[in-house]
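Each lists chain and fold; for instance:
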Amino acid sequence: MAIDQALNVDVLPSKENAGKDLGFINAATTASQSAGMALTSIIVSTTKTYIYIFPIAIIMSVLPIFFVISIKSVK
């Protein structure tokens, strides 16, 4: 998360609107965490087991690594 936040601050379009932009990023992060809880509850209620949650969580945790590695430079 520290890498994400540092990159976010570096790529903000204007320093005057940084607070608004960072607030929007925070709202997007919170929404994605809520979506993760909803997805987890759907999987558990559908399959009646937690066994599928852990492989999905591992994939969802490793996937962002490839997105960060693909960033070549910051303006």
Observations:
- The helical segments are 2-10, 18-47, 53-69.
